[in-house]
Amino acid sequence: MLPSKDVVAINEVVLRDGLQNEPNFVSTEEKIRLANSLSRTGVRRIEVSSFVSPKAIPNLRDAEDVFRGIERVPGVTYTALVPNERGIQRAIECKVDEVNLVMSIGEKHNLKNLRMTCAESLAQFKGIMGALAGTAISVNGTLATTFGCPFEGPQPVERVLWAIDTYLALGITGITIADTIGVANPRQVAKLVALIRKHHEDLPLTLHLHNTRDMGLANAMAAVDEGIRSFDSALGGIGGCPYAPGATGNVCTEDLVHMLHRCGIDTGVDLEALIDLSGKLSDILGHQVPGYVVKSGTSSRLYA
């Protein structure tokens, strides 16, 4: 469900997209503590983990244990990325609220990322939708590399619209368009969002941005101006695409919330709580995080 036109929903992806690139394993206990703390900040959705092969993403090998250990807060949706039919039964057994399916717009990236053609991904999705029939689990579909593929370059808007129509025909109810490798610019974002909303005015649309080239927040603001009211982001700005060289860094949650609040846009999120959690994230990971506000403080900060 879309939030009010006056409120922007924040979907936290640090536990999945953020941790998937980390070289050192983050303990199950730390993940559970982080999920429980994030649940009380006011974020709308938390992508808790992914039911992917442990060989592919070692840091997410404890997906079941994390899901079973978290405290679920009413009003927060707990979601998991499911790349194929092998993962869906694991998701059902863990009683996820929502499944997130991902296919790349770029065929070459889909082959690299998922080891499938787009047609093969869609066939998997059909099986997943069948397995979910009769459950209360909702389904969101993410379109990766929407704004550009690292192997093919910019993607035709007709292909984006085709993918959205195909997702909806499968019964997927929410769509996320993703700048997976951080190549989008504000004008490109505004143009594509406006086109999608022209074709699907009431579609629950989320934007997943990366800050690889320091345009993430500008892109987010362009999307807000075009009516987007739901964003993925990662605490501390960590993460990135493991199958695109140099594509590091999700849009930072606390930086995004700070910008929106300073622009007079409500998120329902406790910014100070986010900043506090981001400060602790460096200790968990063993390195500094890319976020700015955690280092500088908010722009309303005063000095003696």
What about the largest sheet? 8 strands, parallel, barrel
Shape: globular
Domain tally:
1
Order of helices and strands: EHHEHEHEHHEHEHEHEHHH
Termini separation comes to 45 Å
Give the rounded overall mean pLDDT: 94
Low-confidence stretches: none
Class by alpha and beta content: alpha/beta
Rg on CA atoms, Å:
18 Å
Helix content: 40-55%
CATH architecture descriptor name: Alpha-Beta Barrel
Kindly provide the name of the CATH class.
Answer: Alpha Beta
CATH 4th-level superfamily:
Aldolase class I
In a few lines, what is going on in this structure?
This protein has 304 residues and is an alpha/beta fold. It has helices at 14-18, 28-38, 63-69, 85-93, 107-114, 118-132, 157-170, 186-199, 216-225, 253-262, 271-285, 293-296, and strands spanning 9-12, 45-50, 77-81, 98-104, 138-144, 174-178, 205-208, 230-233. An eight-stranded parallel beta barrel has the order 1-2-3-4-5-6-7-8, surrounded by six helices.
